Amino acid sequence: LRDWAPEHDKMGKGVTLTAEDLKVLKDILNRMEL
Q1: Do the Cβ atoms of 10 and 2 come closer than 8 Å?
Q2: GO molecular function of the protein, one example (predicted)?
Q3: What is the pLDDT of residues 5-22, one digit of tens each?
Q4: pTM confidence score
C-alpha cells in the first residue's frame, strides 16, 4: 500500500479511491482481524 496524502482521499500515486476500492480494502482489513 502507498502512503496516504494529507487530503486522506488520494494515495501517494495520486489515484483516488472509489467506493468499490474502499469496500475491498475494508474486507481485507476485516479478514486480517486487526
Answers
A1: no
A2: aminoacyl-tRNA ligase activity
A3: 566 555 555 566 788 888
A4: 0.43
